[in-house]
Design brief:
This protein folds into two domains: about 60 residues, no CATH class; about 40 residues. It is built from three helices and two strands, in the order E-E-H-H-H. It starts with a strand and ends in a 6-residue tail after the last helix. It binds zinc ion (ZN). The site of zinc ion (ZN) has 8 residues, from loops.
Length: about 110
């Protein structure tokens, strides 16, 4: 059987394994993952799904996970995108309120 290299879902370090289903690199990561998912009231499988989702949003619960490194350029790009999205949403809300006001005062008809 050939060996594959994949990242541990808890610490992010690469591990060599023969099992494609292997997700955690060590007993320590095992313990930390199960402690976290029990606290979050997630099933074993559910926990892995939530971890994947959090990782895609750079919100991995393990503070030492490489995706949480503040100097990670991908993480920075994501934070900037979120900020831009939030400010665009706020501006859109403000504009919508102005338009609603104008409609109510009869200045514009839609
Ligand atoms: Zn690990």
């Amino acid at each position: 059987m050939s060996e594959i290299t994949k990242p541990c879902v808890w610490c992010g370090r690469l591990m060599a394994t023969q099992r494609s289903s292997k997700k955690l690199c060590s007993a320590q990561c095992h313990n930390k993952y199960h402690y976290w998912r029990a606290k979050e009231q997630l099933t074993n499988k559910g926990g892995f799904g939530v971890l994947k989702e959090l990782l895609s949003k750079f919100r991995h619960p393990n503070k030492n996970h490489p995706s949480n490194d503040p100097s990670n350029p991908e993480r920075l790009a994501y934070e900037i995108e979120c900020l831009a999205w939030r400010s665009a949403t706020a501006e859109l809300k403000a504009l919508t309120a102005v338009i609603e006001g104008l409609k109510q005062q009869g200045h514009i008809e839609v």
